[in-house]
Amino acid sequence: MARAFSDYKNIVVLTGAGISRSAGLATYRGPGGLWTDEEKEKLSHVETLRRDRTKVCDMFWSFREQIVKASPTAAHRALATFEAKLPAGASFTILTQNVDGLHQAAGSRNVCELHGSLRRWRCETCGTELSPPDGDAPVHCDERMRPAVVLFGEMLGVDTERTMKRALRECDLFVGIGTSGTVEPAASFVRWAALNQARSAIINLEIDGTYDDYTERHAGESDAIVPQLFS
Q1: Which residues are catalytic?
Q2: Is the pLDDT of residue 177 over 70?
Q3: Which of 96, 104, 110, 202 is most buried when burial is the number of CB atoms within 10 A of its CB?
Q4: CB neighbours of 207 closer than 8 A, spacing ≥ 6?
Q5: pLDDT tens across 5-27, in order?
Q6: SS3 160
């Protein structure tokens, strides 16, 4: 009989857009995903931001308006509850590709946002970063603020890289949830975890050869499977 997830000491969970799908948010690369639209993908590149700041910021502000209306899913809540019940000495890190902030809204404490957050916006003139109120997109130093997210063509932050590498180096259980398994560096996390002989599991709506590096695979809705495995 397989060990319960709660028996592990250093647990790392990678989440992708699939965990937020039932909250009404679009996935990235699945059917109808944001980046299947060539225009949206183009507007998500840092070079386009430099050429057409207004159009890029308008698109991401519209994404942000959808996010602030969304609520955590059953899967988000199950992960937060699981973390809260872990015994002293156990570590639990969520590495999320999402920019929606729903893990924190559910109560998760140790969350590393690999690609930043649409709930924060940054002034590129002075470096000020803030969580703007609803309404019009924010302006600072007489310029439209940009979303505090990692655009295509940009690198992950130094602190982010340090956090994810330390977590993966020490983990004995690695679980992927709702991620396409195709975007680097996250696509390689399961192999990094394997170097530490960690148990690995993937939970995704559909399972194909992309997930062959995982030692166990669970096909189906994350809202149904995550509460069962993280009980």
Answers
A1: 115
A2: yes
A3: 96
A4: 217, 218, 219
A5: 999 999 999 999 999 999 999 87
A6: helix
Smallest CA-to-CA distance from 129 within 115, 144, 145 is with 145
Statement: the pTM of the whole predicted model exceeds 0.90: yes
Domain ranges of the chain: 1-25+73-115+157-231, 26-69+117-149
**What contacts 88, CB < 8 A, 6 or more positions away?**
none
Q: Quick check: bond before 87 cis, omega within 30? A: no
Question: Going by CATH, does the domain composed of 1-25+73-115+157-231 fall within 3.80.10.10?
Answer: no
Helix (H, G, I), strand (E, B) or coil at 55: helix
Place of tokens 């609520």: 71
CA distance 210 to 132: 38
CB 11 within 8 A of CB 91: yes
